[in-house]
Amino acid sequence: MKKLVTGILGSAALVFSASAGWGATLDDVKERGTLRCGVHTGLAGFAAPNDQGEWSGFDYDLCRAIASAIFGDPSKVEAVPTNATERFTALQSGEIDVLSRNTTWTLSRDTSLGFNFAGVNYYDGQGFMINSTKLPGINSALQLSGAAICVQTGTTTELNLADYFAANNMDYNPVVFQGFDETNAAYEAGRCDAYTTDQSGLYALRLTLANPDEHVVLPEIISKEPLGPAVRHGDDQWFDIVKWTLFAMIQAEELGITQANIEEMKGSDNPEIRRILGQEADSSIGTVLGLENDWVVKIVSGVGNYGEVFERNIGQESPLKIARGLNQLWTKGGIQYAPPIR
Amino acid sequence: MQQQDLSFVRTELEPARPAPAGDRGFVRWLRVNLFATPLDSVLTVIGLLVVAFTIPPILRWAFIDAVWSGADRTVCATIAQGGIQPDGWSGACWAFVNAKFEQFMYGRYTYSERWRVNLTAIIFIGLLVPLLVPRVPHKFLNAVAFFIVFPIVAFILLVGGWFGLDYVATSLWGGMLVTMVLSFVGISVSLPLGILLALGRRSRLPVVKMLCVAFIETVRGVPLVTVLFMASVMLPLFLPAGMTFDRFLRALVGVALFASAYMAEVVRGGLQAIPKGQYEGADSLGLSYWQSMGLIVLPQALKLVIPGIVNTFIGLFKDTSLVYIIGMFDLLGIVRQNFADANWASAQTPMSGLIFAGFVFWIFCFGMSRYSIYMERRLDTGHRR
């Protein structure tokens, strides 16, 4: 079913991407005065409304960073909540300018759906969670042979699960459910031994369980889920802006530029810092993108660097407390790596 | 002689004695209603046990152990979960509802403009209450104000963009506001349109009849979810680039047309229940088609189908939650959306939020249901058994 829908959307997109002459998205955004950003309808830590009804979250902060780069004002974002199927048409039809909604970067989405993925802002992967009081002594997914596993049906998660167990010659009993909520409830009620979904989802679920300490996320990651922002084919300038906004946030963390020290950093002696912040006399670091030369300053003072955004929304400063893991900088053992900004 | 022996002669009847103690008052009520037969007694005891085992824990959860206010999830989580409550604690997290209450009512409607929603609500209640109370005069003027003037005023107030009011995009609307606007439009469009469709379906004009049948059967044959999904996912692909219809407008049109098709069938049921003599009587009086329908047939038919009409209204009120499909959030949608707020994620949050949403829906639906029963009784002219 999912394939069918994707197929229909894909072919429809092909037909219409040919006729749709996409102009400069940047000009449209500037004229409108706000960035229309597609976000999740509600995913803990990534995009969710706070008490005031304002959006916040890791994915949403990327929207705010792009708005900062363009307008110098992180608040000039209009969040458009989209669900799993609607997200692609919303982007294709021009209802949103950029999709920042924990979307996995795959070949078919990049090609036949007519999108460009502007990098990876979160490396996720499918994992397992077990109740350690029910299954003491299990500390690896390879010990789960014969287990009943709760999984959401119709997702890539279900297929990955089958692949993993087949590849390791293990048996399992899938306990499938239609929605996220039902699957969570079934796991909590003890209907299955283990629960599998993306690791970020496991951490979010753990928060809502009665005894979080009893539940352990196993170390194995059985699939690659690179999540990143997507834009439409056909506007390379806009693609560059989104891509380099993300890179600038990562680069800022690498150089130790934070929201707090951005003003001192402008006067730094380090030529690399001066260059990325647009402080050199003949700088064209922003004009090549169609932005102003201090665009990185605006991003960092508006939302902070990559690490700050991570810790604030999903890391140690948030209730989710997700470890950096693969999302650590390449210099610190992760794989977040930005090409040089020069 | 013997007469004098009679020291007492009753001159009046002795007053009736009260029934034996076991056969009157509360005891009798218990005996007749709860312990009439051994089976009844067993069922009563089982029932009491069920009540005794379920009600106190529920009251305890919902009131005694509940948390009424707080800043974030810690007040609703046990120490093991990273909160402040003792381990093993379980109580409703009304603090979550409390903190999010404004959002549940207005969605993300611009903060400084929320008085406009309040004003609309006040006008709505101010016009609706006199319309519902039969004693209040000037029903016709009231109805005109409620169904024609009020929607225009509400549109200007809520959307803005005129008379110095700031424009508030419908994508910011949510919660109770969306539920109420959708149901109001759905209800006030579906009844007249449904009546017209029902009359059309019984019309002797073949084209009118065919169109009405086609519309009703098509709309009834497709789930509302599908229509909303098509309108939000497929429609934008077939429109010229950059051209989009307001999502909320799409939902409004979909919901109103849907309810109309169902309403048409309910009204048609009423029309069929009217004896042929009534139609013939109207004709013999020389009334035109619209006169005979408006003065004779419809007043009787609509009265008969009040339960069906209200049933459709209640169904419509609850169906508004389906706008979740197109990324709009009614009361239930916005409650569920807020479960994702990591600051409030706790084991108690979802249950508390859903119970709150359910309670609000119940109040409205129960209110509609009670009013319809009242109306039925008032209009009752002998059809009741």
Q: Would you give an account of this structure?
A:
The complex is a heterodimer of chains A (342) and B (385). Chain A is built from 13 helices and 13 strands. Chain A folds into two domains: 2-123 and 226-332, D-Maltodextrin-Binding Protein, domain 2 (3-Layer(aba) Sandwich); 126-217, D-Maltodextrin-Binding Protein, domain 2 (3-Layer(aba) Sandwich). In chain A, strands 1, 4, 5, 6, 7 and 13 form a six-stranded mixed β-sheet that branches. A five-stranded mixed β-sheet of chain A has the order 10-9-11-8-12. A two-stranded antiparallel ribbon of chain A has the order 2-3. The relative contact order of chain A is 0.14. In chain A, helix 3 crosses helix 9 and helix 3 runs antiparallel to helix 12 (295-302). In chain A, 38% of the residues lie in helices and 18% in strands. Mean pLDDT of chain A is 86; it is low at 1-22. Chain A is of the alpha/beta class and 342 residues long. In chain B, 66% of the residues lie in helices and 0% in strands. In chain B, helix 7 (176-201) packs antiparallel against helix 8. Chain B starts with a helix and ends in a 6-residue tail after the last helix. The longest helix of chain B has 31 residues, at 349-379. Chain B has 15 helices and no strands. Chain B has 385 residues and is mainly alpha-helical. Among the domains of chain B are: 21-64, no CATH class; 110-167; 176-328, Orthogonal Bundle (MetI-like fold), CATH 1.10.3720. Chain B is flat, with a radius of gyration of 29 Å. The chains are: A alpha/beta (342), B mainly alpha (385). The interface between A and B is large, with 49 and 46 residues.
